[in-house]
Amino acid sequence: MPTPTFSENSIKGRVAETIIQELFLAHxxxxxxxxxxxxxxxxxxxxRKTNGPVNQQIRSMPDFVVQDQRNNKLHFVEVKYRASxxxxxxxxxxxxxxxxxxxxxxxxxxxxxxxSPTNNFQQAKKFHPRAITC
Length: 134
Fold this sequence. Notes:
Helices cover 31% and strands 22% of the residues. By secondary structure, it is of the alpha+beta class. 18% of the residues are buried.
């Protein structure tokens, strides 16, 4: 099977983001787009041509800010699509500047929707998935 192109991976990632956004909305959470693609349109192409700490922080912006209406708490949410369902914090390039973000991994596997807080991930450097019930 051929390796997916950037465009195919981008489409799969957007579909995964939409699925997770709709799941949060269905459970009466407020969902706000936050990632670089939505906050600063056009910057994605610019960041592919540059390097440095500002570039890295822009590229690592979580996809969403999600608000739990029951307690008004806000959470950063990063959505990743992985066909295998496997994700490690080692997959992240450089130092991740959003230590309170939650990663949600979407995969083809039925148990592929997972969530894990990244608090203290610099010490652990391991992803411990927990299945979420929808």
